[in-house]
Amino acid sequence: MAYAIIRSGGKQYRVSPGQTIEVEKLAAAAGEKVTFGDVVLLADGATVIAGDPIVSGATVTGEVIEQFKDKKVIAFKYKRCKGYHRTVGHRRALTRVKIEAIG
Questions:
Q1: CA–CA distance, 97 with 63 (Å, rounded to integer)
Q2: I want to staple 69 with a disulfide (CB 3.0 to 4.6 A). Which of 9, 20, 55, 91 is the partner?
Q3: Global pTM?
Q4: Which residues contact 103 (CB under 8 A, 6 or more apart)?
C-alpha cells in the first residue's frame, strides 16, 4: 500500500490515494486540482524514502471537494471573586481534499 506524509498549513498528514483529508484553508475553489510539494516521507510497499527535510521530486496531487468552517470552539475566561467572565467562539476555515495520486 502506497502512502506519503505531507506538510500543509503547519501540520503533517499521512495520506494515501482515494483518501479524503481536511487541511487548513487553501487558495483553490471546489473542483480545482492542488499539488502538495512538501512530501516528508514516501512509502510504496517495502520501499520507504525519508526526506531531509523533504523528498526531492515527489508530489501529491488532489482535488478540492469543498471549502467549509469547522465546528465552533468555545473559549471561556473567568476570574473568581471579581465578577469577570467572557465567552469567545472561534471557527477554523478548512478545505476538504480528495487525494488522487502520489508520485
A1: 6
A2: 91
A3: 0.84
A4: 58, 59, 60, 61
